Amino acid sequence: MKHFAELINALESTNKTNAKIDAIIDYLERAPDEDKVWFIALFTGKRPKRNVNTNYMKEWALEITELPFWLFQESYSSVGDLGETISLILPPPTEKIERTLSGWMNDIINLKTKTDLEKKEFVLNSWNGLDYTERLIFNKLLGGSFRIGVSDKTLINALTKFSGQESSTLMHSLMGKWLPAEVSFRELISAENVNPDNSKPYPFCLAYPLEKDLDELGKPDEWLIEYKWDGIRGQIIKRNDEVFIWSRGEELVTEQFPEITEAVQQMNGNFVIDGEILAVKDDKVLNFNELQKRLNRKTLTKKMLSEIPIEVFAYDLLELEGNDLRDKPISARRAMLEELLLNENPENIKISESIEFENWEELNQIRENSRDINSEGLMLKQKNSPYHSGRKKGDWWKWKISPLTIDAVLIYAQKGSGRRSAYYTDYTFAVKNEDKLVTIAKAYSGLTDKEIMEVSKFVNKNAIEKFGPVRTVKPELVFEIAFEGIGFSNRHKSGVALRFPRILRWRKDKTVNEINDLEEIKKLIQ
Predict the structure, then answer these.
(1) Domain residue spans in the chain?
(2) How far is CA 239 from CA 45, 199, 267, 272, 307, in A?
(3) What pLDDT shows up at residue 164?
(4) Quick check: 443 and 502 in contact, CB under 8 A?
(5) DSSP per position, 425-477
(6) Residue 340 C-alpha from the chain's centroid
(7) Which residues in the chain land under pLDDT 50?
(8) So what CATH class is 205-400?
């Protein structure tokens, strides 16, 4: 546990990706293989179920410290995390327990069959043998709330650097179904249970935001124009009768889209298609909020599959029968893609529409109307362009429509982390609903450091209530909120959710009486 605690401390002490990768590699070089397996399991979300009621943990801590309940609650409100609060208030340990991470995990799992009295004895003995950082980790593992600020991509990059394996091979191996007690570290890293060549994706070709006048692009007929969709960019791979779906974020998402997997499985041949995964019903592209309901679920019910059907709008063909097509011009790749889909006619996969237009002025009008079909704007691709790895300026451009905006009032604030931990930087905004205010969005970006300090002073002077680390403030500060899309949602009291909300500007010229009305906002939903 000591080495694991040092790793967690190192990870939480920096926001630099390379520093996190170095910390992970340092841990892997020191930890036993059994601990490495549990490290990967915990960092990929394979946490054991909670076997100890967190209310009991709070009671036991108060029993040891003899603190009054009100003081504990004040401490909890200030810290904002139960496990950390308990770790801070407990007296220093009188013993030292040396046990591996895997040993701790096995003990925690075995608590499932223990009585409450046996659980209490185990927890109290553990607290008395661990230092502050070790206690904090122990509490989080015990309470089933272990989370750390390391993305799957950072984890895979660290394991790639440590093992020498390719990142796609490791992702294929780690993101599958496995249990820590049934697999060794060597088996995970060497990917013995998978064929990495079958699943390997290509680096995605990406576009730059359009930064020049259309006339500077040359002749209109030199460009392929498609709609830009707000879904999940993905590569659909079929090799040797195996199907894999990779997101642009380098995550293997095959199991989340069974209808796509089934459609591809029924197609002949081997290929790699690049496209956009979208929720489409009755030939209409649904809001991203609908697609989001299907993500990261362990099971997909028949009702959900029916209510939120999925389609792929295919953009490109990267590989056909083992032949890498990326050096060919997109005009040739698209012709081959059209032939493939025409011959196979798969359900749930269709070719992305190629927009016909006469001149740049007409294209500008098409872009302005793109929100009518839930599109974000247009993609402009030079017809002679190959499929680059990453971005190359000049060949592919994304030309998005201007964001939507509303005026909303700040009603909740929470302090940030890192260098902004002393200031309120996380905000919740509300709009009018008859004579009430209802929350509609959270936003964390858009203000200058000077404005953040000014808002923090206002929060300190005008806080009404405390809910843990969150402060309710007088509804006086009005902000213009920009966002890319809007849809119905149960996550906010308003019943709607904004896509990529951010603060556009502080409207010091407006009062709370001038913020937007909910019913008017709902009219923006397509």
Answers:
(1) 2-143, 205-400, 404-522
(2) 28, 8, 11, 8, 30
(3) 84
(4) yes
(5) EEEEEEEEETTEEEEEEEE--S--HHHHHHHHHHHHHHEEEEETTEEEE-TT-
(6) 33
(7) none
(8) alpha beta
Tokens linked to 480: 């213009």
Q: Which of 36, 119, 228, 381 is catalytic?
A: 228
Instruction: Give CA torsion, residues 367, 372, 373, 375, to 10 deg.
Output: 50
The total of other beta-carbon atoms located within 10 Å of residue 73's CB is 15
The one-letter amino acid at 13 = S
CB contact at 8 A, 147 and 153: no
* pLDDT (0 to 100) of residue 147: 67
Give pLDDT, residue 231.
92
Active site residue 350: no
Q: What class has domain 404-522?
A: mainly beta
Q: Give the model confidence (pLDDT) of 429-474 as tens digits.
A: 999 998 899 888 888 888 888 999 999 999 999 988 887 788 999 9
For position 196, what pLDDT does the model report? Answer: 62
Amino acid at 33: D
Integer-rounded Cα Rg, in Å, for the chain is 26
Amino acid at 476: E
Q: Is the pTM of this model over 0.70?
A: no
Q: Which fold has domain 2-143?
A: DNA ligase i, domain 1 (1.10.3260)
Judge contact between 253 and 234, C-beta under 8 A: yes
CB 82 within 8 A of CB 58: yes
Which is it for the CA torsion 189, 191, 192, 193, positive or negative? Answer: positive
Look up tokens 């489409």; give the residue: 280
Tell me the two tokens of residue 407. 């005026």
Contact in structure between 442 and 426 (CB atoms under 8 Å)? yes
Contact between 44 and 152 (Cβ < 8 Å): yes
pLDDT score recorded for residue 195: 65
Distance separating alpha carbons of residues 148 and 145, to the nearest angstrom: 10
